[in-house]
Structure formats: C-alpha cells, structure tokens
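Human:
Class, as today's exercise, you are to examine the entry below, and be ready to discuss the fold:
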Amino acid sequence: MSGLVLKLAPKERILINGAVVENGDRRTRVSILTPDANILRLRDALHPDEAKTPVRRVCYVAQLILSGDADPNEARPQLLSGIEQLSHALSDADSRKTLGEATEAVLADRYYQAMKLLRLLIPREDRLLASARLS
C-alpha cells in the first residue's frame, strides 16, 4: 500500500478535495490512496488575514495549492519566485538549507512538504521583524 498516511487526533479536521472531514473521538490513521488528492490539515492552515509577512505569504500560496483553490501549474511559478525572494532576505545557512529543500519539494510537486518546510521559517521571520521594529 502506498500513498499518504495521516494520523489524526480526536476531533481533528482535514480538508480533502474541498470537503472538511472531522475525526471522531479517538485517534485514527487514515490512508489516502488517491494520488494528487488535495489534502490540508486545518491545524496547519493559515487564515488569509495572517498572510501579512513574506514567509507567511509564500506559505499561503502553498496552502492554496493544497486546498485546491489554486491551480498548481499557475501557482508553482509564484511559489518558486517567493522562495527565491526569501533566499535574498534569509541568508543564514539554516534558512538557505530549508529554502533549498522547499524548492526541491515544489519541483517534485510535494506542496505539503514545501509548506511544512516554509513554516519552519516563521519563528525566524518573527524574530527578525521584531528586532527591526526595535531598531
């Protein structure tokens, strides 16, 4: 058996091809066998109002692809461009490595992995923005 295996907490919600699905009262494992299904854990989702910083905006583009609200062929160039722009601002070795892995994930059509990697940069971005406001 191949495909995506989701481990869901009680009452956890996921979006599958536009439908919100809520888990029951117990932990569950769900195997998604259909390739290219649009799947997004709602706990990982950004609200559109939260997409106000560069990293969050790029994460949001990946999220739109995952939710099925954006055509991957149209959004992929925007996503790659956003990652490239982030690489100019986040030039430390860890960020560069994460951005490189996110680029590879996008090129392999692994948008959930790309979003997950990009979300790792949000705390760093928050620290940089906070220190810039203090200056």
Residues 72-89 form the longest helix (18 residues).
